[in-house]
Structures are given as structure tokens and as C-alpha cells.
């Protein structure tokens, strides 16, 4: 299969690319860091096609896609919209609006844009698979998740609505919603490079690993074409719901 994955320079994207290449697929992998992509190209070999661009930049995205051989785009089998991030964990009244803008731009706008670019290839050949990396934050509220959770709620509803639009087509869509996963740059990015704060998130917790997510993605694409997994929500056993909060004497 030919598989386009956004954000392969670390975390889930990297683990997914590594596993799918090992399984014999061709992976077009994106990210903004050219040096990391060069490293991966050396490691993954000729079935890895690196593309360096910011998914939030519409023109850069179109240019990058146009740089691919027409034949490859026309024969793309899977789009994995993985690039994304959380910024900040402050309550909404104290959050930095610039963080909100960046999350909306990448997690919402760029995911919608790239999907819009790729979908006609899938509907033309009447096959294809969009896997969106959402989050449990798109369903379950937690303190400080304000706009991050809302961007992932967009990913969730967008995924379901795509399925509604694709009625009668053999084009599949899944929203994969992980809970707490370590071994990625997610928390370093969230806390603007504060490694101590990032480390504390994972201390004494048996969290989900990027390789676990890669295995789930491999399982999804190995399902027969008549099966569509709408949503796949996954948490580490160590994580569960906080329940509703009641404040006395408010
Ligand atoms: N880790 C978790 O606990 C967790 C839980 C649920 C959902 N998720 C979601 O899973 C996805 C991957 O997260 P991760 O944990 O693997 O984080 P990560 O290690 O920080 O990886 C994020 C990837 O996205 C790329 N990226 C970010 N912004 C980009 C942009 N504007 N243009 C192009 N590439 C961009 C990064 O590459 P460059 O920096 O090179 O651009 C990087 O490769 C995200 O959508 C995240 O919201 C994570």
C-alpha cells in the first residue's frame, strides 16, 4: 500500500511509519524538520519518501503534494492525519491566545485541508482510507484542555461526517482516539520545552507507547475493505475518568 502520514519526525508518526515500512508498505512521511526527515530516510530506506512542509501552510501543502509523482498520488491507499499538538494547560481565562490559534491551525485547519486535497483521489478510484488521530480529549473534558480538546472534538465529528458523505463509496474513515501516551514529544511541546514538567506527566504511570498506536494502525488497515471502524478509543489501564466535580459553598 501507499500511505501518507503527517508528522513522522517523532512520536506516533515515526512509530507508525517504521512499522508500516517493515510490513512492506511505501510511506510518504511529512514533518517540518528536514534534519529529522533526512535521518529517517537513512534509516527507513527507499520505501520512505520524505516531504518537508508545514501542514498549516496551504500553499506549502499543495506544492509538496505536487512534487510527488502523479502515479503515486493517484494510487494512494491511506492518509493518516497524525500531525498535531497541544499547547499549554492553563485554564481558558489564563491561556495564551497564540497557543489557541496554533492548535486550531494545525489540528483543525490543516487536517481538513489535507483531507480535502486527498479525498478526490480516493473517490475517483473508489477505495482509500483516512485515519485521523483524534484524542480522548475530544470526548472527555479535563482541566486545561479547553481548545486542544475542542480541536479533537472537531476531528471526531469531521471523521463521522466524512463517513456520511462517503455513502456508497468504498472509502473508509476512522478516528483513532488515544489517551495518555508517553515516548513522544507531546508534553515537551505542550509545556513549551519545559522537560521537567513534561517528565512529571509520565512518572510512575504505565502509559501507552507509540509502538502500541502503530500496532493499532496496522490492525486497522489490515481489516477487510467491507469493514469500517468508525472510532477506536484507547486509554492505558492506569488512566480512567475523573467524574463530575461538585464544589461546596461556591
Ligand atoms: N501523546 C499523547 O498522549 C497523545 C494522546 C492523544 C492524541 N495525541 C495526538 O497524536 C498526534 C501525534 O502526537 P505525538 O504524541 O506523536 O506528538 P509528537 O511526538 O510531538 O509528534 C507530533 C508530530 O507532528 C508533527 N507536526 C506538528 N505540527 C506540524 C505542522 N504544523 N506541520 C507538519 N508537521 C507537524 C511534528 O513534526 P515537526 O515538529 O517536524 O513538524 C511531529 O512529527 C497528535 O495529533 C496528538 O494531538 C497524542
Task: Describe, in plain words, how this protein is organized in 3D.
With about 250 residues, the chain is α/β, with parallel strands linked by helices. The chain has one domain (about 1-235): Rossmann fold (3-Layer(aba) Sandwich), CATH 3.40.50.720. It has nine helices and seven strands; from the N terminus they run E-H-E-H-E-H-H-E-H-E-H-E-H-H-H-E. The chain has helices at about 10-20, 35-45, 60-65, 70-75, 95-125, 145-165, 185-190, 195-200, 210-220, and strands at about 1-5, 25-30, 50, 80, 130-135, 170-180, 230-235. It has a seven-stranded parallel sheet, with helices on both faces. The longest helix has 29 residues, at about 95-125. The protein starts with a strand and ends in a 16-residue tail after the last strand. NADP nicotinamide-adenine-dinucleotide phosphate (NAP) binds near residues 7, 33, 106 and 180.
Strands, helices and their partners?
Layout: E1 2-5, H1 11-22, E2 26-31, H2 34-44, E3 48-52, H3 58-66, H4 70-74, E4 78-81, H5 97-125, E5 128-133, H6 146-165, E6 171-178, H7 186-190, H8 195-202, H9 210-221, E7 231-234
Parallel strand pairs: 1-2, 1-4, 2-3, 4-5, 5-6, 6-7
Helix pairs in contact: 1-9, 5-6
NADP nicotinamide-adenine-dinucleotide phosphate is lined by residues 6-13, 30-33, 36, 54-56, 82-85, 106, 133, 135, 178, 180-181, 184-186, 189.
Brief synopsis:
With 250 residues, the protein is an alpha/beta fold.
